[in-house]
Design brief:
mainly alpha; 6 helices; elongated
Length: 194
């Protein structure tokens, strides 16, 4: 319980809650969009081998996870350091070992975990149908359809979360995010037709 209490305390002190929400939405959307692009692109190219899709999308997902972790950590660490230095100047004392200093260090790591975990989570979720296909549970063509459906559902949910956060219509915001996914899907399907 002490760990969770400290976690809540550090999130409150550092103000990383809203930042981590933004990182989660942006990076989760990137994860779903990238895997959607790989899946629809493979379909457009006539590739029906689920191993190729899994490895390509997994590689992209791991890269996004690493990139999200490193980028979020470095961005948040720089912002936290700036805030701490400003506060130290105002208070004329060093705060590195204070609860504020600990909260700022925690914020960098927390933002990195969210920034890296979100695209890995959504990307891996979109790939699940291909794992079923690799084990013969569903056909490759059904896996493509299911993966596209999962990616579009994730996009709608992310938009709905934004609508909830902003106290606006969750359906409209979900539909806006969904529209991006549908547009991307249509673009790739158009490529197949040309």
């Amino acid at each position: 319980m002490k760990f969770l209490d400290n976690l809540r305390r550090y999130i409150q002190i550092s103000g990383v809650g809203s930042i981590s929400r933004r990182f989660f939405i942006m990076n989760a959307f990137d994860g779903a969009t990238t895997v959607l692009g790989v899946v629809v692109g493979a379909y457009a190219a006539g590739i029906n081998n689920e191993s190729w899709v899994i490895l390509s999308a997994l590689g992209a997902t791991i890269a996004m996870g690493m990139s999200g972790f490193a980028g979020s950590y470095m961005a948040e660490e720089a912002e936290s350091a700036k805030k701490l230095i400003t506060l130290e100047k105002m208070m004329l004392t060093e705060l590195k070992d204070s609860v504020v200093g600990k909260a700022n260090r925690f914020a960098s790591l927390w933002a990195a975990l969210i920034g890296g975990g979100a695209p890995a989570l959504t990307g891996a979720t979109c790939l699940l149908p291909f794992l079923f296909s690799a084990h013969g549970i569903v056909s490759a063509s059904l896996a493509i359809q299911m993966s596209i459906g999962v990616a579009l559902c994730i996009m709608f949910l992310l938009g709905a979360i934004l609508g909830k956060i902003s106290c606006r219509n969750v359906v409209i915001h979900g539909a806006k995010m969904l529209a991006v996914g549908v547009l991307l899907t249509l673009i790739f399907f158009t490529l197949k037709l040309t």
